[in-house]
Amino acid sequence: MFSRFLAVAFLAVLFLPAGAEARSPKAAKQLFGHVNGPAKMKPRPIGFYTKGCLAGGKQLAKTGPAWQAMRLSRNRNWGHPVLIDFLEKLAVNAKEKDGWPGLLVGDLSQPRGGPMLTGHRSHQIGLDADIWLTPMPKNVQSYRQRESRSAISMLAKGGLEVHPKKWSMARAKLIKRAAESRGVARIFVHPAIKKALCEASDKIGTDRSWLRRVRPWWGHHYHFHVRLNCPSGMAGCKSQPAPPVGDGCAKQLDHWFAMMRPKKIKKPVKPVKKRKKRKKRRVLTLASLPHGCTTVISKGNKTLQKQLRAGKIVGHIPVPARNPRRVAKPQNMLEKLINGLKADGKNTVTPVVENEN
Asked: Between 3.30.920.30, 3.20.20.80, 1.20.120.520, 3.30.1380.10, what CATH number should domain 42-260 receive?
C-alpha cells in the first residue's frame, strides 16, 4: 500500500503541468479587488447585483457641495454614472429642501465592480450605495478622519426599536426622499428602522407608496442601502423583481421581530440532534461571472490578457457539477491513474470536484 502511494506521488510530480497552481480557478475577488482604476469602456452594469461587474465606472468625488465619501482606503466610491448622478442630486436636494447637513457616503462599488475582498456580497455592478445615517459635519474631514470616524447605530438596547435620542424625523425624511427618487428599486434598512418609518409616515406626508420600496434586512442600523434598477436599454443587466405589494408594515413585519426576539430555551426531553454543518459559500470565480466580465477585468492590462489566453487564469470554463460525488472525465494521465486506483478498490484517492451552491 505504501509503495503504491509513493508511486502515485512520484507520478503526480512527473505529470503535473508547469504552473498548474496558477491555472487553477482563481477567486474573482482576488482579481477585481486589486484593480485601482475603471475599465475604459462604455458604461454598462453587467449581470446581477450579487454576481457581475461594471464597465466604464465613474468615481464619486471625495468631497462635494453636500457630501463626503468615507473609507477612501477601500477605493469603493465607484459606480455607474446613473448611481453617481443619483447620489449627487439626493445630497443637494436633501440639504436644500429638508435641511439635512449633507451625506456621508459609504461603499458603492470597486472600480470595475465584481466581488469584493471583504464585506458585501452585492455592490458588484455599480448600482448599490450605502449612505450613513450620521449627518455630514460642517468641516471637510481629513483622510484619517474618514477612516477612523464611526457610524452611529440607530438602535436602542435590545435591538428591537430605534433609540429615541438617536433616531429623528430628519432621518425619516432623508430615507423617504431617497425612496421616492426615480430609478430606485429598493432601500434596505434594519427592521426596527422600517417599523419607525411606518409609524412616522403619516407625519411626513399622506402618500405611503414609497414604503413599499423600503425593505427590512439585517445589519442596516447605522446606514441605509440604496439599490437602483438597471438603466433602460442595458442588455445583460438584470434588475431585482419588484417588492411584494403593500407598504410592508404591521403584520408584514411580524416575522422579522419574531426572529429577533430572544426565545426561551426549554429543557429538551429527547437528546438534541447535532446540527448539520453549513455548507461553505461558493467562491465566485471569473468563470462563474457573466462573459463580459473577462473583458472588463482584462481591459488595458496586457499582462492579464496574456495570462487569460495562456490559460494561467481560468476564464470561462464549464460550471462544476451539482453533485459533489460526480467525477469529471479524466483530462490527463494523473487523473486516469488516480481513477484507476480507485476502481481497483486499493486506494481511496478521489479527485476534488467543487460543489455548486
From this structure: 3.30.1380.10
d(C-alpha 169, C-alpha 203), whole Å: 9
Instruction: Tell me if residue 194 falls in helix, strand or coil.
Output: helix
pLDDT in tens, 146-195: 999 999 999 999 888 999 999 999 999 999 999 999 999 999 999 999 99
If you average pLDDT over residues 268-284, what whole number do you get? Answer: 70
For 67, the grid coordinates are 457630501
pLDDT tens string 296-306: 999 988 777 77
What is the rounded CA–CA span in Å between residue 176 and residue 199?
13
Residue 1 reports pLDDT greater than 90: no
**What letters, b where the CB count within 10 A reaches 16 and e where it falls short, cover 229-261?**
bbbeebeebbbeeeeeeebbbeeebeebeeeee
Indicate the domain borders of the chain: 2-25+283-344, 42-260
- CB 23, CB 312: distance < 8 Å: yes
Q: Is the pTM of this model over 0.85?
A: no
At 258, which amino acid appears?
A
Cell numbers placing 235: 442588455
Taking a C-beta distance cutoff of 8 angstroms, is the pair 155, 162 a contact? yes
Give the number of other Cβ atoms within 10 Å of residue 200's Cβ: 19
pLDDT at position 348, please? 36
The residues, ordered by sequence, that sit 6+ positions from 116 with a Cβ below 8 Å of its Cβ are 29, 32, 33, 76, 110, 123, 124
The residues with which 52 forms a beta bridge, in sequence order, are: 47
pLDDT of residue 47: 97
